[in-house]
Amino acid sequence: MAKSIFDIASKSIDDQAVQIAQATPIGKCINYDGSLVSAAGSSFRGITQQESIKSGEFIRTAVMGTCGAQVGEAVSVGTALTPDSQGRLVAASSGQFIFARALQVAQQADDYIEIFITREGKA
User: Fold this and answer.
1) Which of 55, 60, 62, 106 could join 12 in a cystine, given CB atoms 3.0 to 4.6 angstroms apart?
2) Residue-range definition of the domain harbouring residue 79
């Protein structure tokens, strides 16, 4: 497990500059319209790799490869991940969109871990 997202945030092979619709913390899931994900298990654009402090800012967002992300529960290596209602990644349940796989163990909610973005589709 990384001590902070800054230990792993720069490993993405495809980052996009995304205009953010609201202040958004680093390591969170964002929608295609730049808003923070609020629907558990949904498809989304990527993981924020910078913090946004106000609406309208452009920030780096990982959309492919490996990157750092915040989790909403303890997960093990290889766990299929989907967003929760707070924009963190959690284990995917049947019928939910699998966005990534955990590359590190997370001991608890709000840990930052390295993930591999897979966009596998529904579990």
Assistant:
1) 62
2) 5-122
1, 104 in Cβ contact below 8 A?
A: yes
Q: How many domains does the chain have?
A: 1
Tens digit of pLDDT per residue, the chain (123 long)? 444 555 555 555 677 888 888 888 999 999 999 999 988 888 889 999 888 888 899 988 999 889 999 999 999 999 999 999 999 999 999 999 999 999 999 999 999 999 999 998 887
Read off the pTM. Answer: 0.86
Cross-strand partners of 101: 80, 116
Helix (H, G, I), strand (E, B) or coil at 78: coil
Put residue 35 in one of left, alpha, beta given phi > 0 → left and psi -120 to 50 → alpha.
beta
CB 81 within 8 A of CB 89: yes
Cβ 44 vs Cβ 30: under 8 Å? yes
Cα 28 to Cα 94, 106, 111, 112, distances in angstroms: 22, 15, 12, 10
